[in-house]
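ok trying again, last paste got cut off:
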Amino acid sequence: MKNPDVPSAPLLIESLDQEGRGIAHRDGKAIFVEGALPGERVTASIHRKKPTFEVGRVARVLNEAPSRTMPRCTHFGVCGGCALQHVDLATQVAVKQRVLEDALGHIGKVKPDVMLSPVQGPPWHYRHRARFTVRYVPKKGGALVGFHEKRSSFVADMRSCEVVPERISKLLPPLRRLVERLSIRQRLPQIELAIGDGADVLVLRVLEPPSHADEDVLRAFAEEHGVSVYLQRAGPETAAPFHPPAAADLYYSLPEFDVRVYFEPTDFTQVNHAVNRVLVRRALRLLAPRAGERIADFFCGLGNFALPIARSGAEVLGIDGSEGLLVRARENAVRNGLEARTHFSAMDIFKIDAERLSRLGHFDRMLIDPPRDGAVELVKAIGEDAPHCIVYVSCNPATLARDAAVLVHTNGYRLEAACVVNMFPHTAHVESLALFTR
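nice, full thing came through this time. structure:
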């Protein structure tokens, strides 16, 4: 039988790491303590020991930090969806800014001339995309629908969620009952949520077709709760409307630019629509596009930035590795009356070089919005005919810092400004925005 963790001697928490864990030191070792905050003295139950570090969780808080607050969600601490609900919002943002500044300084050896105010939005009910895992576990009373537990493949026993819209939170108990009524309940591993400005879609991943009785249950559920149910039989591209049988009218709006971005339920879109609106506004203010200019939008996706840029009167070339997303970007351009000023092209940006980039022609300005891997090959490929302004939207401070080092130390740019984007409140995830000029 495994011995229970024994609480440590008191530890003084010095800072938070990138996962939101408190950091203390003892006998030359770093000790990472989940649930502890800077300035607190705590005891910790250690569950992992290595020669240079230990990992544990708070056993007892001996004196609380002023930034500690009461978690709003009853599942916090078990559910792995949030890591920082015990920290007030101002401190969460300050910690993320420190992570960004540290990455830029230590990895990139760069420092922005100005740290802009953070991009923020509502801290609760903000998630318009979510992927709930489904398990039918008779020993736990039936079906479970929710996020994974922390550090576990088990599904948290969730009956509400404070970060999805309230109407979706209230759907969790009915969703559990729905799964329990289906004959394919053991063959339904996932329910994906996609919310637009006027439609809620639930995509059920089904490993075998539902029976006729199951279909009746699904139709009744969709009608009772006012949602569109899609069935996904294989990869994301197989998701198709089940009930109502017509495709849902999924879009999010950028009213400041008179733009609607339409999307399919399994397309990549920003999770937080409110913060995305502020992000696009801030990014375009930094980019400062002008009518008649030629601007590149790398990793353009559905046109989240390309369409607002085109609205300024500039000509935009959107480039992405996904032809499927580009098809919808072109459709979005037509729907918004911007097809004359937008062009979209498929390219593996991770394999771009100076020659391929030069073939695209001269750009006055450039926007880059890469995935977590960053855009190092792209920034390396920038040569003498370089844009005088680059706005970089990042979801990984480490790869932003790496790419910033190339832009500043090799390509002669100046890191004029940067800021954090709190796209995922109550998590340790850090998004950011940076302006490079030369």
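cool. The first strand starts at residue 11 and ends at 12. The chain has three domains: 11-68, 94-122+272-437, 129-195+200-243.
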